[in-house]
C-alpha cells in the first residue's frame, strides 16, 4: 500500500514517515512546502514533493500519479494565537488546503483519510477535560478552520463514502519540532530563547493549564488510526494524561536545562485559560500509552535542540490585521 503524508517535514509527519519506513513494507509519499518544516527531517526513503497544498492542480497531479491508499493530513500552520491577525493565510493554509486533499481523496478512491485536527475546536465553553462527544465551539480562526475540515470530512463520508479518522492531538513536542517559529509551540519557543540567552516568555500570569505529549508515545497510535477498522468515522483525542500550568511547564524546562534565567511575563492574549482533554478513547482504540513524562521528554528534546544548526528565527513581515495586535508581536526579538 501507499501512504501519503502531508506536512512530512514537520514534527508529526516526519516521525510517522520514518516509523512506517522502518517498520513496514509500505511506500511513503510526502508533501511539504518547507515553510515550517525542514528537508533534513524527511527520511531519504520518502518520495518527496515540495509545493503548497493550496494549489489544487498540483495536489491533483500527485494523486493522479501516486494513487495513495491512505492519506495522513498533518500539514497546517498551527499558530492559534496569531490566526486572528492572518485570517486569509489561516483559512487558505488550514482549510482550503485540506479541502483540496479531500476532493482528490474522493476522486481517487482513498481508503482512509486521517486528519490531525486540534484541541482548539473545543473552545472555552466547557470545563476540562474535554470529551470527544462535545459540540465544537472554537474561539479563534485557527479552531474554526479545524472545525470546518472535521465537518467537511463528515459530509465527504455521508455523500461519497470517504472513510476518515479525526485525531485531536494534545500539544505534541519532541525531535524534529520547529523551535525557530516565534508564534507556535511554546516548549520550542522557550528552548530557542534559552539557547540564545533570552528569557522565556509567558503570556499573562502563566496559570493557564495545558497537557503535553512527547511525540514518540503517539507515533504507533497514529499508525493504528489508519489500520483499526473500529476507528472509521471516529474522533479521538490523543495524548496528554496530565495537565500543567504554563508556569510549571516553564519551571520544568528550566530545571532540565539547569538555567538560572527568569521568565519574562507579557500581556495576556486571547486564548482558552484551561484546556486539556480526555484520553481514554485513545487507549481503547489506538493502544496509546503515556510512557514519557514532561521532565524526561523535555530532556530528550533539549539534547536534540542543542545539536541543531543556528537557523534564522521566523517573523511575520506583514500582518494582515494590525489592529489589536499584541505589543510583543510588533517587534522582532
Distance between the termini: 46 Å
| Shape annotation | globular
N-to-C SSE string, H for helix and E for strand: EHEEHEHEHEEHEEEHEEHEEHH
Portion of residues in beta strands equals 15-25%
Indicate the radius of gyration in whole angstroms: 19 Å
Structural class comes to: alpha/beta
Number of helices: 9
Largest sheet data: 7 strands, parallel
Record the strand order, biggest sheet: 3-2-1-4-5-6-11
Task: Kindly report the average pLDDT value.
Answer: 97
Helix content: 25-40%
- Number of distinct beta strands: 14
Low-confidence sequence ranges: none
Structure description:
The chain has 333 residues and is an alpha/beta fold. 35% of the residues lie in helices and 15% in strands. Strands 3-2-1-4-5-6-11 form a seven-stranded parallel sheet, sandwiched between helices. Strands 12-9-14 form a three-stranded mixed sheet. Strand 4 (70-73), helix 3 (87-107) and strand 5 form a beta-alpha-beta unit. The radius of gyration is 19 Å and the shape is globular.
Name the features.
9 helices, seven-stranded parallel β-sheet, three-stranded mixed β-sheet, globular, alpha/beta, 333 residues
Outline the secondary-structure elements.
Layout lengths: L1 E5 L4 H13 L3 E5 L15 E3 L6 H11 L3 E4 L13 H21 L4 E5 L24 H20 L3 E6 L2 E2 L12 H10 L5 E3 L5 E3 L1 E2 L4 H9 L6 E5 L4 E3 H12 L6 E3 L7 E2 L4 H7 L7 H13 L27
Parallel strand pairs: 1-2, 1-4, 2-3, 4-5, 5-6, 6-11, 7-10, 8-13, 9-14
Antiparallel strand pairs: 9-12
In short:
The protein is α/β, with parallel strands linked by helices and 333 residues long. It is 35% helix and 15% strand. The strands form four sheets. The chain has a seven-stranded parallel beta sheet with strand order 3-2-1-4-5-6-11, sandwiched between helices.
